[in-house]
Structures are given as structure tokens and as C-alpha cells.
Amino acid sequence: MAHTETHGRRRTTRALLALGLAPVLAVGASLTPASAAEGDSSRAGARFLSGEILGTNLDDTAELAGVEVENLGEPDPVTATNPLDLTVLDSINVNVPGGVQLPLSDIVQLGAVNQWATAEDAGASHAATGAVADNGGVGTGVDAGFPGNATFDLSDVLGDKLTGLVADVELELGAVSSEAHLVGPESADGAFELTRDYEIANGKLKLGVPALADLGPKVEQAVGTVDETVNGLVGPEGSVTGAVESLSALTDLLALIGAEKVDVTATLETDLQSAVQEFLATPIGEGTGVQLNLAEGTLVVDLGVLLGDLNGQAPNTEVLSQAVLDELAATVGEVLDKAVQDLVAVVEDALQKAELDLAIYAEVTDPVLGTQVGTLDLVLNDTLGNIVSGKAQIEDNSTGTVPGLIAPVIAETMNQILAVVGGTIDETVFAEGGVLTTLGETAAGLLGGLTDTLAPVGEALAQLLSIKLNVQPDVSAEPVDEHHSQLPSTTAEPRVSDGPYRVAAVQVTVLPANPAAVVTLARSEVGENTVAEAGQETGADVARNGGAVGGAVGGAVGGDAAAGGAGGAGAGTGLPDTGSSSNQLLILGLALMLAGGIAAYAVSRRRGLPQR
Questions:
Q1: Which residue windows are transmembrane per the record (predicted)?
Q2: Is the terminal CB of the chain with fewer CB neighbours within 10 Å at N or C?
Q3: Are 521 and 546 within one domain?
Q4: Residue 356 maps to a domain
């Protein structure tokens, strides 16, 4: 019996000590802050180049991999950056039609691009790729050495699908990038906030059009006809020479000085071929969204101009929509109409600058002595433009007795010479019905026919290519704000965002009806993210802190019901965050522990038990 009492007293003593220790242990547990990140999770990823080209799966190529990060409640962000190694494109082979293997770099050329992602606590994640810096800053990538340019040479991919209307297809994109951000709720009734955006500095579609290349020689031929007609003004049989020789004022002048014979010579320097070559080599249509280069036989479409803007488009916008293709056809017609005017203007300008050199020369001989006593020497050297406008002047270089003889009539004679020369040139070249009029009519026929030829180019282009902007696979219709959204999430804890949410700057599909290639550029994704209950511990926190308290107390009391109850309470309620009350709890715990020790000592003394 004594043994039983002693055991009971000892158990009572331990219980009293445990009651004193329990608050201290509870305070110790509360001194470790409840982790807001515990139970949170976030994910993000970024990849610049993905898709498939003629059976070659780019997603299976490890060297083209982007970055993927995951944070499972760690307080520090998990961040990854991986600039794409462009030399990899040379080592990946693609089987193109005709049984030929080409390196991927022959089909896709990239400027330096970056890939960045970070996953934080509190259910936040961010991603960006393309023309982005190492910190994920979009728009700063160019300055940081990541221009993010991309060029697609699709002619080999299209193979025999190319028609006689379109022989080559090349797509150029500048400074391509995307970014995605998913931020967890800041309050119990809050929602996840999703932001997705993309940027493309410029985009041009370059088409090889054989009909344009065929037009160049025809234009050269039409201008060559003009050149022949103009040069026919001069020479022994030229109209200018003949008009001067038959001028009555000159005949009277020769009779006055006693000259029996006069030499009228005229030369003309034109450079129409150089002018037309420059015209053909200079793209026409600048600023319209469509540029035609007749020398190269190319049609370049500025996608941003025709679309209005490459940026700020709704999710999954098709660039080559029917509206854009209709605008393309109309603009091509307008550019070609203006090209007729431009061609005539170029040739007219060249003719205005062409220089005519006219010389009237006669020797005067003394009829008695038979010796030369003077010369008639009149020279006209000026541009056709000045001659026709009356700005030119004839220079009188006559010698001997001639100047005195012709003085009364020379001024009027020279005026008549200028008038007949200018009139002949104007009638043949510049006036209505002249060679420039004929050139305009010829060019209108050539370029007008080309307008009809190019009318189906939009339809052909739509069959060859699809270009989508702001690609968001989870969006089927345009939301109220396609860039920034509040996402529904479960009201239960933890709160889950769903996802992943993706955005790609552009997706190019070759032969959309039966795709030969689908290539996605600048894809960023965030989610699925999870946020634990705000302001409370998660299950992991409770298990850790409650277990520590319950275990300590249970060990001290040997599993008593009272002590076990204390442990259960600790496990069942979340501990408050540490604050100014922690020190007070610590003092209270120490006081209780001391009181328990004193009480135990008093009991043992009163019972007369030995102390152990």
C-alpha cells in the first residue's frame, strides 16, 4: 500500500510539474512564427520555341527546353533563367518534301532570346520569355542582349504546295516576348489575380510573286520606247535639227551675213535606263502596309499596319483574317495605281534633266578675196525642262565681221530658235499625247493587269499560313479584360487557382487545313497555385506545433487523461502568431512551474515521503 501511495504521489508531483511546464512549452512553440507559406504552392514556366515541323517535335528536343519552377511553401523565391542556345538550331534536322534534310536553322532563325520564371510563396508565380532580361523585365531584353527576333523561311516546308502566284513565303518578327503573372488572394474573400500579355515590335510577311518579277522587263521595254523617241529629236534626221534648219529667221540671218551653208548639230544626253532601274529597285507603297519590289519580285506585307497594331489584340487573334486579306487586296490595287503615276513621274523627271546641246555654225567668206572674215557661232546647252519653260538662253560666240552684221536681228532670231526647239520637245515629250502620255497608258495596262493577277493572293495566303497572336488556349472568347483577370477559386481552404494559364506571343501554322508545321513562340505559363488559409497555420504547422506540445506534456505526465487533454487542445487549435504577449506568457509559465514545484514539495513533506 505504501508503494502504491508513493507511486501515486510521484504521479501527482509529475502532473503538477507538467501543468507548470505546459504553458512554457506552448509559448516555446509559439515563438516559432506560423509560416504563411507552409501549404502554399506555386508554379511557373517559360519556353520560347516549341511545336512541330514536318514531323520533327521541337518539344522533345532537350536543348530547346525552357525553364520550369515550383515552390512548395519555401519563403525564398525559386527562380530559373535559361537563354536559348541558338547553335542548337544547326544540329536539329528536318525532313522537308523531296527527301531532303535541312537544319532547323534554315527554316527558323532566331536572335538571342531569354527564358525566365520564378515561383514565390503566397501562391504567386511569374514567367517571361523572348526579349526579356534576366530579371524577367519585358521590353528590356533588347538592351540586355536579347533582341528576341525570329524569321521563318517557309518555302521548303511548303514544298509543292506553293502555287505559281506565290513562290516564296518568309515571316519576320521583331522583339517577340510574353509574360504571365498569377498572384494569390490577399484576403479570405479575395481572388487570384491573373495577368497575361505579349509584345511584338514588328511583323512582316515577305512573299515571292513571279508576276511581279515578270513585270520588271516589261516596264523596262516601255521606257526604252520612250528613250528611242526622245533621242529621235536630235541627229541629222531629228525633228529638232530639222525645225531649226528650216526656221525662216535663221535663213534670213544667213543671207544677211552672206553665208551659203550652215551646220546645225544637236545631241541629247538622257539617262532613262538608270532612272527606271532605280524605280524598279525601290519598293513602292511605303507607309501603306504593302510594299512591292518589282526588281526582286517581292510583296512585303506590314502586318502591324494592316491589322492596326500587332500588340493589344484579343486572345487568339488571327492575323490573316478575311478583313485583313480584303484590306491587303485593296491596298495592292491602290499601290499599283499609284505606281503608274510614280513611273511616269520618274521618267518625266529624268527627261526634264536631260541635256540638249545645239550648235549653229557658219563661216563667212569675203566674196572678192575668198578669205574667211568671220563666223556665225550660236550655242544652246541646257536641260529640256529649262528649254521648254523658256528659262534657257542661247550663247552668241560669233567672230569677225559677223557680230556687227547680225546685231540688229540676232536677239529676235535666238528667241525664235528657242521657241521652235522648246515647242518641238514639248509636243513630242511632255504635252498631252506625247511619249509620257503613251508611257502612262502602257504602264496602266501592265500594272492594271497585275492587279487582277494578284487579286487572289489573299485567298492563297490564307490556305498556306495561319498567324495567331496572344495565344491563350484556355480562352474561347474575349474576356472583359484579356490582360488582367480575377479568377474564381474555391472558398474552402486551401484555395486553388486552377491552371496552368498560358500565353504565347504568336503561333504560326503552315497549311492550316492539314498542318505541316505548328510553331509557337514566346510561351509563358503560371499555375496551378495554392494558398493556405490566410492568417492561420496549415495542417503542417498544426501537426508540428501541436505534436511538440502534446508530446512534451504526454511524456511528462505519463499519458494522464488531464495531461492528454491539454495536448489534444493544443493540437486542435491554431496557435496565434508571436507578438507582444509572448513574454507575458513565458513569465506566467515560469511562475506556474515554480508554483507546481513548491506544491509538490509541500505535499511530499506533508505526507512524510522521501524526496528523490
A1: 585-603
A2: N
A3: no
A4: yes
C-alpha cell at 243: 525645225
d(CA 495, CA 482): 23
- From CA 222, how far away is CA 425, in angstroms rounded? 19
Count of structural domains, the chain: 3
DSSP 451-462: HHHHTTHHHHHH
CB-based burial, 317-326: b 16+ in 10 Å, e otherwise? bbbbeeebbe
- Output the pTM of the full model: 0.73
Residues forming beta bridges with residue 96, ordered by sequence position? 100
d(C-alpha 375, C-alpha 34), whole Å: 117
Residue where one domain finishes, among candidates 492, 514, 531: 531
Q: Over the chain (612 residues), what is each successive 10-residue block's mean pLDDT?
A: 40 42 42 53 97 96 95 95 93 90 95 95 95 63 69 95 92 96 90 96 96 93 95 90 94 91 93 93 94 94 96 97 95 94 96 96 90 95 97 97 94 96 97 96 92 91 97 73 52 69 98 97 96 51 31 32 35 34 46 53 45 42
* 500 prior amide bond cis, ω within 30: yes
Grid cell locating 199: 509584345
